[in-house]
Write a structure and sequence with these properties.
With 239 residues, the protein is of the alpha/beta class. It is 40% helix and 10% strand. The protein has one domain: Uracil-DNA glycosylase-like domain (Uracil-DNA Glycosylase, subunit E), CATH 3.40.470. Bound molecules: uracil (URA). The site of uracil (URA) has 12 residues, from helix 4. This is Type-4 uracil-DNA glycosylase.
């Protein structure tokens, strides 16, 4: 088993199987078990790993196309998302939907998820412990979807996904690379920020158009194969 295979199993929390007697085993390689949507969804719904479970109405798993080429990742459910069980359905969500439309995507064509699956009380920032407990679910969603491009909206998502503390402003305008899977990742403002600072909507539109250039013209998924345009941009700007 090579290093990346073992890291993959670790991410999925699958114990690596060790041969006791190599000579006795046949030579067929074991096939790693992929997470499946149904079990992932039920594990999220039943999760009590952090204190947020006690104040939630329900968990907010994610929504959209499971074969999306573009995956949008936000911070955490707010009041409306907690009530309805779907990410980005409040005012910020309506703006996000309009932003996606401006680059030719219906909401149903992308996949939308959050760093946290439960609403923090009074929409406070997620705590490091909550992020640590919850993000393995997001990581598995990313493995299942294999998006061609990730759009991180806001500071919390960008900092977690890129393992950085750099300012959002300094992260914009570059193609980053998410994890060892090297998924191209673009950073933009959170739509809730844009509601408070509409002057920056133009800059967000520039970011979204930039993300759009990395995708196939049709918006169709390449199933995890990095599009040529993104490979070229990545090799110029990888951080
Ligand atoms: N803000 C987020 O980051 N996510 C949501 O789902 C709603 C608001």
């Amino acid at each position: 088993m090579n290093y990346s295979h073992r890291a993959y199993l670790n991410t999925l929390e699958i114990l690596a199987w060790q041969q006791r007697n190599p000579r006795a085993a046949d030579s067929t390689p074991a096939c790693p078990r992929l997470p499946d949507w149904a079990s992932l969804q039920s594990r999220v719904a039943a999760c009590t790993a952090c204190g947020l479970h006690s104040s939630r109405t329900q968990t907010v798993f994610g929504t959209g196309s499971r074969t999306a080429s573009l995956m949008v990742i936000g911070e955490a459910p707010g009041f409306h998302e907690d009530q309805q069980g779907e990410p980005f359905v409040g005012r910020a969500g309506q703006l996000l939907t309009a932003m996606l439309k401006s680059i030719g995507f219906e909401r149903s064509q992308v996949y939308i998820a959050n760093i946290l699956k439960c609403r923090p009380p009074n929409n406070r920032d997620p705590q490091p412990e909550e992020v640590a407990q919850c993000t393995p679910f997001l990581d598995q969603q990313i493995i299942l979807i294999q998006p061609d491009v990730i759009l991180a909206v806001g500071r919390i998502a960008s900092h977690y996904l890129l393992k950085t503390r750099s300012s959002l402003e300094s992260l914009r305008g570059k193609v980053h690379s998410y994890s060892d899977r090297q998924i191209p990742l673009i950073v933009t403002y959170h739509p809730a920020y844009l509601l408070r600072n509409p002057i920056d909507k133009k800059k967000a539109y520039v970011d979204l158009r930039f993300a759009r250039t990395l995708l196939q013209p049709s918006g169709a998924s390449t199933n995890g194969t990095i599009p040529l345009s993104a490979q070229q941009t990545l090799s110029r700007t990888q951080t």
